[in-house]
Amino acid sequence: MKRLSNLFPIAIVISAFTALASPATDTGLVLWYTKPAEKWVEALPIGNGRMGGMIFGGVTNEHLQFNEDTLWTGKPHEYQHEGAVKYLPELRQLLWDGKQKQAEDLAMKEFMSVPLHQMAYQPFGDVYLSFPTHTNATGYRREVDLDSAMAKVSYKVDGVTFHREAFASYPGQAIVWRILADKPGQVSFSARLRSPHKMAKTSGGSANELALTGQVEEGGLKFEARLRLESKKGKVTVANDALTVEGADSATLLLVAATSFENYHAIGADPAGLCDKPMRAVASKSFDALLKEHVADHQNLFHRVTLDLGTTDAANLPTDQRLKNVAHAPDPQLAALYFQFGRYLLIASSRPGSQPANLQGVWNDQLRPPWDSKYTVNINTEMNYWPAETCNLSDCTTPLFNMLEDCSVSGARTAQAHYGARGWVLHHNTDLWRGTAPINASNHGIWVTGGAWLCHHLWEHYLFTGDKEFLQKRGYPLMKAAALFFVDYLVKDPRTGKLVSGPSNSPEEGGLVMGPTMDHQIIRDLFANTASAAELLGVDKDLAAKLNEMRGQIAPNQIGKYHQLQEWMEDVDNPKNDHRHCSHLWAVFPGSEITPRETPELCAAAKQSLIYRGDGGTGWSKAWKINFWARFLDGDHAHKMLVEALAGNTFPNLFDAHPPFQIDGNFGGSSGIAEMLLQSHEPDPDSKTGGHVLELLPALPSAWPKGSVHGLRARDGFELDLAWNDGKLSQVKVHSTLGNTCKLRLKDRLVAVPIKKGATVTLNGELK
Ligand code: FUC
Fold first, then answer.
1. Which is nearest to 182 in space by CA: 162, 196, 207?
2. Is residue 50 part of a domain?
3. pLDDT at residue 246 greater than cutoff 90
4. 372, 373, 376, 583: which to mutate for ligand 1, most atoms within 8 A of CB?
5. Would the CB of 48 count as within 6 Å of ligand 1?
6. According to the model, what pLDDT value does residue 315 have?
7. Interval 628-671: pLDDT, tens
8. Is residue 629 part of a domain?
9. Distance 575 CA to ligand 1 centre (A)
10. What residues make up the domain containing 745?
11. Is 642 in the pocket of ligand 1 (CB under 6 A)?
12. Is 618 touching ligand 1 by the criterion CB < 6 Å?
């Protein structure tokens, strides 16, 4: 391949020190329906990171189901199994001797988390509104507008048009809900506040407020929510634990909620006090003022990226209808809507101060939710954060990194108790109490690279933002301690002399083994990133040298007899295995050890493995496959996976249908679309500072011949606008936040474009 390292011709327009302008509001950003939701997965989500709401939009009976992200079962607890380490050598020997069943049985007895299971995320409560006279409604519509982050319902009864508008405000830390009519004095309804928890009760607080108080279980978290009703004209009363308003012009409900959770080892907070503060603040402001600050806050994040993949008439139909048609009628706007919905959901479920997005983000209506709606870290939690950097929502990672800091403390105890190792380890799940020990069953719970995988996000955060202070204060200490664990833990395979991981598993199949391929890919990545970070920060020279040395001794990726990438040390892959997990392809995505250009043979084997796995799977599995095919530079196959995810694994409200609902597929879908349009993981061969190559439209499908995207982020501090026509790039704008030289692959040539910090460069003619 011919390389051009010289500077790009002068035709480049440099508009110094201007950020990319925010384009006009995109009106295609609405999910809308002609009927109220009957099921929870038809209701529409709003959220402010900490609180989530699902709005059903009923006419006579309206329902808002809500959550607060610190309401979980259980209480502070340490899960490690003291003394487990005694059995580690025996477990390894049994596995090397081919006695997998005995090893799993022994591990079940002596090596598992105490207790065996972690705790569950809980629903908080429900607000029910009753409009007894609202029958025979016409002109019904409900929607969620991603642009303003508002859910709306409108309809007409007896010549009066009613509107309801709800949003979850991050600045206000409250859910705000307004009910209005187009004629004066027409707003009359009653509101009730309920909870599915047995130990909960509602009482009238002040003249226009209800309070819901309760406790999840004896000794567990206490909680409180307040619902306040303000009206313009009309009369508000509290009676029979309901708020009633009669004859108002409009009414506004304010909902706040809190628990006694302080942090993962203390639950002494006062939920009443925690409700008072935001309630006082929001009650002192007008609806318009609350709305204004909410929209400004939301759009500050949401407007950073716009996407146009083309327009068809399909977009004129309600969203549920479009989903039904998508398999056989092209609907590029639905793909764009789905992409932006993922961004909307991340903003709504992960903000500084909140918990990270769990298996259901922040939305859950069940006391016993699927997989406890906790944090499964052998794919799901990571997938939640895949779009964070590429889709320009870097700020939403804060809760994830806070959780890692907690897990590095609890995980240090597990590292000691189970492995006698330094550093910290996180197995395949964690919860509000930051459990890190292996749970559920030894054949899949003993998997050691959850923390290491999450450390990949720390390094990527640095690569995208260039935030050295973050790397020094938060990222590197966590990465270093995670790497130290593996320095102590890796063991020489007596058969090959290579360093291997084990006992562990290739999530979640094949049972307990020594040396699953995925672990080695993740550990190599952790060692490489930690060594690079140490060098960059000018610290821990000896450790960096040790990590680099050990990295070369870890069992390598291997190609097996079916031309596949081996999932295990032994060549035992079954080409008929269509399991949803494709763990050994980690090095293709989200890792980057295997790429089409740098490691073509391994890449061909990885692709063969994916072909054997097939195109089926759960929501998240298909979402992962969008990202894989994008990394294999096959836009049409990536698009096929996207359409199959939309057609087969998406609920009417666009929530990912594993099934059941699990939010990871939404986030994986947004990430996959971004990977189709821009990639920046490949190292720049000419860079001495670890720079990367930007690949523009690397996997553009034939289904999107014309389009544009604004604001996608690339590693090394770049923000891009791309436009294309007839499947070819027509314009590129690169904005630099760090002042690094931008290396672009244009028509198979590498081109270096110097861009000053804060400047934007436009390429037009050079693209022809
Ligand atoms: C893993 C996956 C399941 C599900 C669960 C939460 O166990 O294999 O499909 O996503 O996590």
1. 162
2. yes
3. yes
4. 376
5. no
6. 84
7. 999 999 999 999 999 999 999 999 999 999 999 999 999 999 99
8. no
9. 22
10. 687-767
11. no
12. yes
Q: Is 97 exposed, middle or buried (0-12, 13-18, 19+ CB in 10 A)?
A: exposed
pLDDT in tens, 563-618: 999 999 999 999 999 999 999 999 999 999 999 999 999 999 999 999 999 999 99
Chosen domain end from 302, 321, 344: 302
Q: Is residue 660 part of a domain?
A: no
Closest CA to 602 of 632, 570, 646, 572: 632
Residue 658 Cα to ligand 1 midpoint, Å, equals 9
Lowest mean pLDDT segment, chosen from 154-163, 184-193, 307-316: 307-316
Atom of ligand 1 nearest to the CA of 581: 8
The structural domain count of the chain equals 3
pTM above 0.85, yes or no: yes
243 and 105 belong to one structural domain: no
Contact 652, 43 (CB under 8 A): no
Distance from the CA of 372 to the center of ligand 1, in angstroms? 11
What is the Å distance from ligand 1's center to 425 Cα? 20
Query: Is it the case that residue 14 has pLDDT exceeding 60?
Result: no
**Nearest CA owner, ligand 1 atom 8:** 508
649 lines ligand 1 (CB under 6 A): no
Distance from residue 621's CA to the centre of ligand 1 (Å): 10
Instruction: Give 501 Cα–ligand 1 centroid separation in angstroms.
Output: 22
Which domain CATH number covers 401? 1.50.10.10
User: Which tokens belong to 526?
Assistant: 């952790």
**752, β-bridge pairs:** 7, 743
> Is 64's C-beta closer than 6 angstroms to any atom of ligand 1?
no
Pair 447, 543 in one domain: yes
Closest by CA to 595, choosing from 632, 638, 623, is 632
pLDDT band, very low/low/confident/very high, at 205 (cuts 50, 70, 90): confident
Average pLDDT taken over every residue of the chain:
95
Spacing, Cα 369 to ligand 1 middle (Å): 13
Q: What is the pLDDT of residues 668-723, one digit of tens each?
A: 999 999 999 999 999 999 998 899 999 999 999 999 999 999 999 999 999 999 99
Please tell me the predicted confidence (pLDDT) of residue 271: 98
**Measured in angstroms, how far is the CA atom of residue 672 from the centroid of ligand 1?**
19
Looking at residue 160, its pLDDT comes to 98
Question: What percent of the chain is modeled with pLDDT above 70?
Answer: 96
Cβ–ligand 1 contact at 359 (below 6 Å): yes
Distance of CA 728 from the midpoint of ligand 1 (Å) = 39
Using CA atoms, how far apart are residues 128 and 157, in angstroms rounded to an integer? 20
pLDDT above 60: residue 17? no
* Domain membership flag for residue 669: no
| Co-location of 712 and 736 in the same domain | yes
Burial letters 705-724, b for 16+ CB under 10 A, else e: ebbbbbbbbbbbbbbbbbbb
Residue appearing with tokens 């971004």:
674
* CA-proximal residue: ligand 1, atom 11 (nearest): 376
- Chain-centroid distance, C-alpha 539: 32
**Cβ 380 under 6 angstroms from ligand 1:** yes
Give the relative orientation of helices 398-419 and 450-465 as an angle to the nearest 10 degrees.
150
Asked if residue 261 has pLDDT above 90, the reply is yes
